[in-house]
Amino acid sequence: MIENGVTTQANTAPPPAQTQPTQPPSAPRRMSAAAILFFIVVAAALGFFVYRGIGARVSAESTLVRETRESSILDVAVTHPKFVTGAQEVVLPGNAQAFIDAPIYARTSGYLRKWNADIGTRVQKGEVLAEIESPEIDAQLLQAKANLATANANLQLAQTQATRWQSLIRTNAVSQDEVDQKTGAMNADKAIVTADEANVHNLEQQAAFEKVTAPFDGVVTARRTDVGSLINAGVGAGATELFHVAAIDRLRVFVNVPEQDSRAAQGGATASLYLTEFPGRTFTGTIARNANSIDPASRTLLVEIDVDNHAGLLLPGAYVSVHLKLPGTAKAMTIPANTMLFRSEGLRVALVKDGKAEMTPVHVGRDFGDSLEIVDGLKISDSLIVNPPDSLVSGTAVRVLASGR
Fold first, then answer.
1. In angstroms, how far apart are the furthest CA atoms of the chain?
2. SS in 3 state form for 372-402?
């Protein structure tokens, strides 16, 4: 608007409205509350799932720690030492041998004509086992007998002349010198006859050795010749072993008794013998003798046990388990053999003390097979771990499950 040449601008602005408090519409207010409620629910759900996830992880970690701790504890079975009273016995390996065992060699050379006994044949003393053909010996024997006959003829002539000269000397028909010559010739012929008789006897013995005989009652355990084989007389290089004969009606059982058990090797004591081929059966023998000397290499005493074997059940060369009783009564602390540990520092057993393993050195006395005598290192109340692992060391946590025998 222009008024009096002055341009004025009309005040077209509306009059200021009266200030009133701002009030949001009712619909927007309800949506905002729902959103807030939604966010609260979502937050609570998220918090719940986060809490459950963290709790599960914490529980799993706790379970893992507990299981790891439990698995680190070694489960063991234990046993206790025990006292064994009364007569004790020691069990040792023995070797059965024939009471008499001999190789049979020929005493004359030649070729084998025939044999009469094979392995397993029972023979009697003097029974012919084989015959050897030796024509050289037979020829020498014939010649020796002829020489002996000649020597006997010469001796008879010399005796006749000596007798005649002895009668003539009384009449001084012959000289004393001639009588002495005849007597000397007779004595020389006697010596020749004696030598020829010895030669004939020697050759007769060699001819008799053409028959190989058994030297004692026994059984043939080996035959190492056959018909037509060349036989060399004697023993040693080039000699031929014809047979091997063993007397098995009685056996010798040899056993090496440890020095600490040598008291069990008293002469006349009874020994029990067990063989795996006769389960549940016991054979009895008698201690006949011992070497009366400890072998410095093995620290054992060689003992011989004689066993009657007329039934022929025991065989020479068999392995025998020998049970010898120690004299008197003894009280020994024993533990099972499966509680021992062999370490570089010596024998050890594992004891359970306060829930932990403790390696303890022990000194072993006699070995009873499945158990050992303990001389020093244990008390009767000690708890020993049965079948301890080789890796077991002192301080390892253990848990006792059961008691052994």
1. 238
2. EEEEECCCCCCCEECCCCCCCCCCCEEEEEE
Beta-strand relationship, 110-115 and 128-133: antiparallel
Q: Check the CA dihedral 354-360-363-367 and report its sign.
A: positive
Q: Could you say which of 160, 190, 209 is where a domain stops? A: 209
pLDDT digits (tens, 9 = 90+) for 204-246: 988 888 999 999 999 999 999 999 999 888 766 668 789 999 9
Residues 343, 360 contacting (CB under 8 angstroms): no
Handedness of CA 9, 14, 20, 23 (dihedral sign): negative
**Do 139 and 203 share a domain, yes or no?**
yes
CB atoms within 10 A of CB 117: 20
Scored b (16 or more CB within 10 A) or e, 267-281 reads eebebebbbeeeeee
CA distance 197 to 143: 12
DSSP 8-state code for residue 280: T
Instruction: Decide if 64 is inside a domain.
Output: no
381: tokens are 């109340």
Note whether residue 306 is domain-resident: no
Task: Let me know if residue 31 belongs to a domain.
Answer: no
What is the pTM assigned to this prediction? 0.57
Query: What whole-number distance in Å separates Cα of residue 307 and Cα of residue 324?
Result: 14
Give, in order, the Cα–Cα distances in Å from 284 to each of 15, 25, 80, 110, 162: 143, 121, 35, 47, 73
The CATH code of the domain that includes 159 is 1.10.287.470
How many Cβ atoms are within 10 Å of 207's Cβ, its own excluded?
A: 16
Q: Which two tokens stand for residue 212?
A: 């190989």
Total domain count, the chain: 2
Token pair in block for residue 338:
């499966």
Per residue in 329-349, pLDDT (tens digit) is 556 788 999 999 988 888 899
